[in-house]
Design goal:
- The chain is an alpha/beta fold.
- It has 12 helices and 27 strands.
- Strands 16, 17, 18, 19, 20, 21, 22, 23, 24 and 27 form a 10-stranded mixed beta sheet that branches.
- Helix 9 packs parallel to helix 11 and helix 11 packs parallel to helix 12.
- The protein is elongated, with a radius of gyration of 26 Å.
- The relative contact order is 0.10.
Length: 561
């Protein structure tokens, strides 16, 4: 763990509080009409009238609410299996929407309007909600979806009760096709793409990137990065535009791109960046440490939730105008840079507080945009994030989104380990990174707090790093060099929380091993503690051992990868 002072933790907002934000609207009643949905009970045996994300919707014969067919949405860890239907409606009119659902966290609603949900329906349960159209609204998108990692949901007998719209008043015009699709860069596992904007009679709302027939990314801008690809492999991509009514354009020109060779690692990304924390432990001036040691990068801790899905330094200090921005400005003026770290061991974190991957990506983006960042670090720890599969997947999904929206951004995940490599939760994080196409650049282990004060910290660190390297090889199919190029280490200088001791010589040997094996990142917790206090035990502002001031930082500055 990255140690921090204890303080009262704000309770994490429950999923219901985060998601149940829409309430049924009330309006004067309107004469009802027959159900205006197409294929409302899925009795055609097809998804006619419906469109489901990721190809995850299907029609099944069991379990059903009535008739012989129902919808099954196979929600995965990266896709909530959202199924939609756009219908023509009349302006300024009240409609009643209902449906029968079965499963965990199933949602029914109208895009941009009211919604309802159930956290758990062991058998079919009816959901109902009403909404009123806007003064000029002529179409409405009805949706059903499950929730990430919650498994398959079922839906049947969906009803939208109200008058149908005029047959010619809805938006049925598709956008033009995006143009000039081209590749702007590649690594051994990713391809970056850009294109020229499409046009639409109402407005383009987003773009879908396809690899062959499979949709692999959805973005709002005119660029994207597709990760999770195999090295030295050719891929063909196209892009389609869509509007708010669900109309999709024709495909752009195809572009075929080959990824780089497997030995490319992270395109030369190397970083010696010890943690510096402005909210704790008598923080030194960053430029004082830079001048004394030659270090250029700092990992700046910690970005947390200031309430809900809003990012702030330590959950309290604003992103701009405070000590943290002043530190970043000073470091950059001295020729260095920073990588902000999100999370840590305790505090009110963004991962559990943001409703989904898109919302969390928005919180990350607020920090990326505030400083024009080259890299971010997600310090994923404890039961609220690291040992929570739903939040793990949310973090990975968010990192995938910000990489697509910020070409060239490097993403780092930092987590605990055993002496022989990742724990079961660490293995899951790596496996899900591959499954979700998160394209993580560096997997950083924290090789300390093993629970035994007599641990040989050099041997334990090397054992953990080699275990991570082997896991990366088996998961991604990489060779040794490529796997090492995705490995990071973040130790704890001096006395750890478990009374282990990493000596100056230990850290020198670890740095030398890291250079010899060309890993990607070397860090430690923390610069605040990089001062001597022999026999002092675990301290916030010194290491608990005999050392010169900033000695661990000086050693780290010698990391070249």
């Amino acid at each position: 763990m990255h140690a921090r002072p204890r303080r009262t933790r704000l309770p994490a907002a429950g999923l219901a509080a985060l998601l149940a934000t829409a309430a049924a609207l009330t309006a004067p009643s309107t004469a009802h009409a027959a159900n205006i949905l197409t294929n409302p009970g899925f009795e055609t045996g097809t998804l006619s009238g419906w469109s489901c994300t990721g190809g995850l919707g299907s029609v099944v014969s069991s379990p059903v609410h009535s008739g012989s067919k129902a919808l099954a949405g196979a929600a995965s860890s990266s896709d909530n299996a959202k199924c939609t239907q756009t219908v023509q409606v009349q302006p300024n009119t009240t409609y009643s929407l209902s449906g029968w659902v079965k499963g965990a966290y199933v949602y029914l609603g109208v895009t941009g309007g009211a919604s309802t949900w159930t956290p758990s329906a062991a058998s079919y349960q009816q959901l109902s909600v009403s909404f009123t159209t806007g003064a000029s609204q002529t179409t409405a998108e009805i949706y059903l979806n499950g929730w990430y990692g919650q498994g398959t949901y079922y839906a049947d007998d969906i009803s939208l009760d109200g008058p149908g719209g005029g047959g010619s008043t809805g938006d049925t015009q598709a956008p033009t096709a995006p143009g000039s699709l081209t590749s702007t860069g590649t690594t051994s596992s990713s391809v970056s793409l850009s294109w020229t904007a499409a046009t639409d009679n109402v407005g383009v709302t987003g773009y879908d990137v396809y690899q062959g027939a499979s949709r692999v990314a959805t973005v709002t801008g005119t660029s994207a990065t597709v990760g999770g690809l195999a090295a030295s492999t050719a891929y063909t991509f196209t892009v389609k535009a869509h509007d708010a009514a669900g109309n999709a354009s024709a495909a752009s020109n195809p572009v075929t791109v080959s990824t780089g060779a497997g030995g490319g690692g992270t395109s030369g990304f190397k970083q010696a960046a010890p943690y510096l924390y402005n909210g704790w432990g008598n923080p030194p001036a960053a430029t004082t440490v830079m001048n004394a040691t030659g270090v250029k990068w700092f990992t700046l801790a910690f970005v947390l939730s200031s309430g809900g899905c809003n990012a702030a330094w330590d959950g309290q200090r604003p992103l701009t105008g405070g000590v943290d921005q002043a530190t970043i400005n000073a470091v950059r003026a001295a020729g260095g840079d920073v990588v902000p770290s999100f999370g840590g061991w305790q505090g009110n974190k963004l991962g559990p507080n943001c409703a989904d991957a898109n919302a969390l990506a928005g919180a990350y983006q607020s920090v990326i945009s505030a400083y024009g960042l080259k890299a971010i670090d997600i310090d994923i720890e404890n039961t609220d994030e690291f040992e929570n599969p739903t939040v793990q997947d949310r973090i990975l999904g968010a990192l995938k989104i910000v990489k697509q929206n910020n070409p060239g951004l490097h993403t780092i995940v930092t987590f605990g380990t055993s002496t022989t490599g990742p724990t079961s939760y660490g293995n899951r994080l790596i496996e899900q990174s591959k499954a979700l196409g998160a394209d993580i650049d560096v997997f950083t282990l924290m090789p300390f707090d093993f629970g035994n004060a007599s641990t040989d910290m050099y041997a334990a660190t090397v054992g953990a790093a080699n275990g991570l390297k082997d896991k990366l090889k088996s998961t991604f199919g990489w060779d040794d060099a490529t796997a090492y190029a995705h490995v990071g280490l973040s130790g704890m200088n001096g006395v750890s929380d478990n009374a282990e001791v990493t000596t100056v010589q230990n850290w020198t040997d670890i740095r030398n091993w890291a250079n010899a094996n060309h890993i990607a990142r070397l860090a430690f917790w923390s610069v605040n503690r990089d001062r001597g206090c022999a026999g002092g035990g675990l301290q916030e502002s010194c290491s608990g051992i005999a050392q010169n001031d900033w000695q661990f930082t000086s050693i780290t500055a010698g990391f070249t990868g």
